[in-house]
Design goal:
By secondary structure, the chain is of the alpha+beta class. It is built from 13 helices and 21 strands.
């Protein structure tokens, strides 16, 4: 875990951005039942993790930059020897203060009664409305009660502000400590992809390849996959979010693996596509070469001042030219971009922010326009081409081929750094590893 001083510095920076008249509330999403008495594995909301590192459920963190004392207030599960015997250790009220930097901490059950005082009379309440119905009701209840207290000197905040205004801007710009963790996640993930290329053979099952990937993540101390690992062989590679991973790999299949390790609450996001037999067929090679060339061009174009929309348009135009050359589309690039015909084979965006969340937080636009990239932002670059097995008007040799190549890219002062460059993607390298 990061040093406590890092979290303190983050809270300080956030509170400066909020100013003395604002209050911020971040909180855990509820634990979810999977079946019977068994819950889905709990993962703390990234806003709570970012500000405190506190990973336990039922947590609320309230930041009050203008308060005299008790600027950082936490509501947590209290210590409870019996419950801890069943469900694990708790930091409790004292732990929240002594370890996690709270000026004051209270039992989670006291949130409703204390919330009114904590948010009364502020100008802006920074709160993610619409994320969790139960919390929305609690906050709305506090606002309703405050509305009736004006004669007693208490009024509700004048505005509820989305956290993207300040907290998510801060999370979007990665600090050196965050980049160190992302590099570690990238290194582990690269190793996992290479292990998958080595282990995957005609006759392997997609779930075996998934197991190799996820084992590699855990073996290096990662929490596991930062999102559902995708292993799609053959035409399964043309399904963008294929997570069933239950088919056998046939001889001659390409295997698309989209997998990233979450390490210390930050995730990588890498896709590689490789021939199970160790050799691309002619048609597979033609599609792969196109996607690889497009992907490298887009990485090269990632720099301060460029926008994610610039990268996407670059990919769309080059991929559309490739689709025409391959016989998937007819006419001119301009015409096929204009009528969106390319979307039949390239239907997703090229990039997203990356960090604690795989689709990380941060506004994508400024004043209605795509925002320029800045040093410290981390993005994915992930063009692909997907030709469904039953697509109409498609040369037979291209049917059922899906290729995506995805790297994680840090924007630097004068360009970018590919954080996942260690994960092989050149044809000769990929084929050699698959054959080994
Ligand atoms: N793994 C999800 C994505 O690439 O966006
Ligand atoms: Mn991605
Ligand atoms: Mn991905």
């Amino acid at each position: 875990m990061l040093d406590r001083a890092v979290f303190a510095a983050r809270r300080k920076a956030y509170m400066e951005a909020l100013g003395p008249d604002a209050v911020a509330v971040v909180y855990s999403l509820p634990e979810r039942l999977r079946n019977g008495d068994s819950h889905y594995h709990f993962r703390q909301h990234s806003d709570v993790l970012y500000l405190t590192g506190f990973a336990e459920p039922a947590t609320t963190v309230i930041l009050r930059p203008g308060a005299e004392s008790e600027k950082v207030v936490m509501f947590v599960r209290p210590r409870d020897p019996e419950m801890e015997t069943w469900d694990g250790r708790r930091a409790g009220i004292d732990g929240a203060k002594e370890i996690y930097g709270a000026d004051a901490a209270y039992p989670a059950a006291e949130l409703d009664q204390r919330l009114i005082e904590l948010i009364a009379n502020c100008e802006e309440l920074h709160y993610a409305l619409g994320l969790d119905d139960e919390m929305d009701l609690r906050v709305a209840g506090a606002l309703a009660r405050l509305r009736k207290m004006e004669k007693r000197g208490k009024r509700p905040p004048r505005a509820v502000v989305d956290p993207r205004a300040a907290l998510h801007e801060q999370r979007l710009h990665k600090s050196p400590e965050e980049l160190a963790i992302l590099r570690k996640a990238a290194t582990i993930s690269s190793e996992a992809h290479v292990a998958a290329m080595r282990a995957g053979r005609p006759g392997s099952f997609e779930y075996e390849i998934e197991a190799t990937i996820n084992y590699t993540f855990r073996r290096h101390g990662g929490a596991g996959p930062g999102y559902g690992t995708i292993v799609g062989a053959g035409e399964n590679a043309t399904i963008l979010h294929y997570v069933e991973n239950r088919c056998a790999v046939a001889d001659g299949d390409l295997v698309l693996v989209d997998a990233g390790c979450e390490y210390d609450h930050y995730t990588a996001d890498i896709t590689r596509t490789w021939p199970a037999s160790g050799t691309f067929s002619g048609a597979q090679r033609a599609v792969y070469d196109l996607v690889l060339d497009v992907q490298k061009s887009a990485v090269a174009a990632a720099k301060p001042g460029a926008t994610l929309d610039d990268l996407h348009q670059l990919c769309v135009r080059k991929l559309t030219q490739g689709m025409i050359d391959l016989g998937l589309l007819e006419g001119t690039v301009d015409a096929r971009v204009e009528d969106l015909a390319y979307k039949k084979y390239y239907m997703h965006g090229t990039s997203h922010w990356l960090g604690m969340d795989v689709h990380d937080v941060g506004a994508y636009t400024r004043g209605g326009k795509p925002r320029p990239l800045e040093p410290g932002m981390v993005i994915t670059v992930e063009p692909g081409l997907y030709i469904a097995a039953d697509a109409t008007g498609v040369p037979d040799r291209l049917r059922g081929i899906g290729v995506r190549i995805e790297d994680d890219v840090l924007i630097t002062a004068d360009g970018c750094e590919n954080l996942t460059a260690a994960c092989p993607k050149e044809v000769a390298d990929v084929e050699a590893i698959c054959r080994a």
